[in-house]
Specification:
142 residues, 11 strands
Amino acid sequence: MGEKKKKNASPMPAILNGSFCFPNGDKYEGEYTKNNNGILRNGYGIHRFSDGKVYEGAWKNDIMQGKGIMRFPNGSTYEGLFSGNAYHGNGIFAFPDGSKVKASFNSNKVTGYGEYVDTNNRIWEGTFTEKAAIGLQVRLEC
């Protein structure tokens, strides 16, 4: 029997660390890789947007991908999973007044079963469909 030759896979580019400023005023500090097309954010990094938002977390091929946190200028935060630069997977969106939604997100929209914790720390649970949560019921603590 003949031996199959293994194709040489291209080596993984080295993870580098640095800071960059973008023409629109955004700033990035963290891990990146270089290839023939330029620089790609890969690994852990902090991206400060010119509009005041800050993303801190995982990057893959210049896309927010994996675990991270997005902080907004008004005090809101999203902490959880990202995919394709969007909230995607389990996460918590916290509002400036202290209330929060703990749920699954799909392309920045709340979907499926989740919890809403109000400003009095009451937990409401039920099914979310994008922005609506019709039929949430308060969880009774005995």
